[in-house]
């Protein structure tokens, strides 16, 4: 079972930036398609961004396009989520997730990922 660890959450004001990091315990991040999800208070978990292992194709939720960037650093074995121009509605617990080996496509539904981190809190104040 792949172990997933996120870091980098915190509290910022509207318009600020944060960078989240995600590392895994097995193989390398380049071998998996990975995604970031978030769960706002009292709401369901939702897709934020994903990066494909096959060709590093990326995909984003409409609500974060042009503000968030997902990337992968194979040398650091880390996937990042750079979040700029943060808004109060971005407040949530952010989770890194890993698709099973053999599934290279980016999925936007949580149930298509089989390994999750513990989550990291992001709070944006107005």
Query: Unreliable stretches, pLDDT < 50, 5 or more residues?
Result: none
Order of helices and strands: EEEEEEEEEEE
Number of strands: 11
How many distinct helices?
0
* Strand portion: over 45%
The global form is: globular
Distance between the termini: 40 Å
Structural class: mainly beta
**Sheet of most strands:** 7 strands, mixed
Radius of gyration: 13 Å
Quick check: average pLDDT? 95
**Helical proportion, percent range:** under 10%
Summarize the structure in words.
With 126 residues, the chain is mainly β. 0% of the residues lie in helices and 45% in strands. The chain contains no helices and eleven strands. It has strands at 4-7, 10-13, 18-24, 34-39, 46-51, 58-60, 68-73, 78-83, 92-98, 115-116, 120-125. The protein starts with a strand and ends with a strand.
Compact summary:
The model has no long low-confidence stretch (mean pLDDT 95). The protein has strands spanning 4-7, 10-13, 18-24, 34-39, 46-51, 58-60, 68-73, 78-83, 92-98, 115-116, 120-125.
Features:
126 residues, 45% strand, 4-stranded antiparallel β-sheet, 7-stranded mixed β-sheet, single chain, mainly beta
Explain the layout of strands and helices.
Elements: E1 4-7, E2 10-13, E3 18-24, E4 34-39, E5 46-51, E6 58-60, E7 68-73, E8 78-83, E9 92-98, E10 115-116, E11 120-125
Parallel strand pairs: 2-11
Antiparallel strand pairs: 1-3, 3-8, 4-5, 4-9, 5-6, 7-8, 9-10, 9-11
